[in-house]
Amino acid sequence: MKFNVDPPVSEFQRGYSAGLATQDTDLAALRADLERERLRLAACGVVALADTPQSAATAREMHPDYRSGSLEDVIRRVDECIALRAQLAAVTDERDLAAAAVESRTAQRDAARAELAAMTAQRDAAHAEGVRSVQEQTGVIVRAALELLESVEGNEPFAAEKMRAFKRVFGVGDGAIDAARKEPQ
Q: Is 48 exposed, middle or buried (0-12, 13-18, 19+ CB in 10 A)?
């Protein structure tokens, strides 16, 4: 005869044990799902921190289990940010080139203005010198003409009409002829 030392197991106890085993299996599956979702979330963070095309490509190399719809959204946003950063860099470069061109043109304009001012000063000085020279030459001519008139006066009378024409041509008034006569040679 055999003696059974195990106490009798009721149906309730058998069902409870089976339920516990099922719950343990479910719990292990849920823990695995939670771990996978935690890794998916970490993958989103890693991809979100990639801010260059090279680092983005490296960050996206992962096991397919860690990919998710959220990760794909993050990838799209990172790609948009990288593209916008590239556009900003291009616009900044264009702005810097334009600023350098404006600076260069401004320097050229300032140099041209300085050159123009120097040329204007030279022209004004040359004009003033020319006017002075013409005035000197005119004074010499007027003195010579007056000397000629004085020499002719004694031999042949100089008609008043010719004297008016002479004054009109040389632009001298009655007192100017006397002043020209008194000027030393």
A: middle
